[in-house]
Write a structure and sequence with these properties.
- With 107 residues, the protein is mostly beta strands.
- It has one domain: Rieske [2Fe-2S] iron-sulphur domain (Rieske Iron-sulfur Protein, 3-layer Sandwich).
- Helix content is 0%, strand content 47%.
- The chain contains no helices and eleven strands.
- The chain has a four-stranded antiparallel beta sheet, with no helix packed on it.
- A hairpin with a 2-residue loop joins strand 3 and strand 4.
- The radius of gyration is 13 Å and the shape is globular.
- It starts with a strand and ends with a strand.
- The mean pLDDT is 90.
Length: 107
């Protein structure tokens, strides 16, 4: 059974600039894409220490600031090399101005 955890307020995210937060030992990048909040793990799978939240946001994608791999912010899907795997994606919901993400119980 999954659980939802409040991690930020909508007011913390301005435009498409990411907001990064730590959630139970996982760094999560939050994005506001045309009014919809999306969450992905804040690390490039090509080099696990690079923060994607430091990357370039364009049209619903984030580009790794070091390797130039691109990922779909809405799904975490890898769009170009050198990364070969997707970024972990978290379901989000907004209630009363608070952003929650869905966490798997084994996380």
């Amino acid at each position: 059974m999954s659980s939802w955890k409040v991690i930020a307020r909508v007011d913390d995210i301005f435009g498409e600039e990411p907001c990064a937060v730590d959630v139970d030992g996982i760094r999560v990048a939050l994005f506001n894409v045309q009014g919809c909040i999306h969450a992905i793990e804040d690390r490039c799978p090509h080099d696990k220490v690079v923060r994607l939240s430091d990357g370039y946001v364009d049209n619903g994608t984030i580009e790794c600031p070091i390797h130039q791999s691109r990922f779909d912010i809405r799904t975490g899907k890898v769009l170009c090399a050198p990364a070969q795997e997707d970024v972990r994606f978290f379901a989000t919901r907004v209630e009363d101005g608070k952003i929650s993400i869905e966490l798997d119980p084994k996380e």
